[in-house]
Specification:
It is a single chain. The chain has about 325 residues and is of the alpha/beta class. The protein folds into two domains: about 160 residues, Glycogen Phosphorylase B (Rossmann fold); about 140 residues, 3-Layer(aba) Sandwich (Rossmann fold). It is built from eleven helices and 13 strands. It has a seven-stranded mixed beta sheet with strand order 1-7-6-5-2-3-4, sandwiched between helices. A six-stranded parallel beta sheet has the order 10-9-8-11-12-13, sandwiched between helices. Helix 2 runs parallel beside helix 10 and helix 7 runs parallel beside helix 11. The N and C termini lie far apart (about 45 Å). One of its GO terms (cellular component) is cytosol. InterPro entries: Glyco_trans_9, LPS_LOS_Heptosyltrfase.
Amino acid sequence: MGLKLWFERGAWASRSAAAKAAAIEPDRVNSIAVIRHAAFGDMVLTRAFLLELRKHFPNAKITLSIVSNYRFCAPEDMVDRVHIAHGSDRRDTSRREQIKQIRALGYHDLFFDLASTSRSAWLCLLNPAKLKLGFPYHHLQRVLLYDAAVLRSDLRFELETMLDMLNLIGLKTDWPPRFDLAGEAIKRERPYLVYFTSASITGKCWPANRFALLVEQLADQYADYEHIVLQGVADWESIDEIMVHLKNKTNVTAMKAGSLEDSIALFKGATLLVSNDTGTRNLAIATQTPTVGIFFSTVPYRYWPRYDCHDVVFNPDGSLPEVEAVACSVTELMQRI
C-alpha cells in the first residue's frame, strides 16, 4: 500500500506528486535524506522527526545532511549516515569542491528538507529522489524544488511544521512528541529550578538586574527549592553581576555549564527552567522539563510548545518583560507541575 497526499487547501503539491506518493510503499523505502541546517537548539528538536521516520519506514537507512559550522548536538545516534555540506566556516572551499560535497548526498527514495536555505535548495536540485518534501516560505521554491510542501508559519512551534510533512503523506505522528535523549537525571539534596541568563547573542539577553530580582523573589517564594543560576561557556556570559545581588541567599547556587551530557542530566532533574530565547531552552524541552521562555527580540511562537508545561513571556510591543510577569508565569507553571 502506497502513500497518499492528505490535504485539501492547507498544503501544496505538484500535479505528479500524488502518483509519485502512491508508488512508494513505506516498508519498501530503502533510503531517506533529511536536510537540517540549524544551530543546536533547533537541531535537538529534529530528534522527534527522526523517531517518526524510524517508526513509519522501518527498513530505511536515514542520512542526515548538516553543515560544517552547525554540528553540535546533531542527532547522529538516530541516523545511519551523516552528510556534511560546506558551511560558513569553509568559505575558502572552491566552487567545484562545494558541488562535489553537495552531490555526495546522493539518491534517496525520500527527501525531507527541514532547512529551506539556499544551500538546502542546491542539495534538492543536484540530488535525485522519488519524492521531495519541504516547507519553504515562497511559492516559487515549492515549484522548483519539491513535489509537495507544507505551509510554514512563524506563528506555530516549528516542530509541528516538520511533522506536518509526515501528516501530508498520510502518516500519523505522536503528540506530544518524543525525543529519546539518553541520560539520567542528577540527584541533588533539594528539588531545584534552573535559570539560564545567556543566549547566542547579547541582544537576546534579558537584563542581568531583572534576572537578579527574579531569582531573589522566587528564592523567597520557593524557599525549599535550590535555585541554580547557570553560566554559559563564553567569557561574556558571566553571572557575577547577578550573583553579587544574591550573595545572601543561601538557597541560590552558581553553576557553570558543563558538557552536553551534563546539561541533559541537569535539566532532566530540574523542576523548571527559566531562560532567554536560546537553544538551551530547546534542550530542556527535549528532556521534557517545564520551561518559561523570555522573549522580546525574536518571534516567540516558533519556540513555544503548546503541550505539557511550557510558557513564554513577552509584551505585544516587543518591550522587555517585567520581572513580575515572568514570576507570575513561573508561579502558574509550578502550580500545575
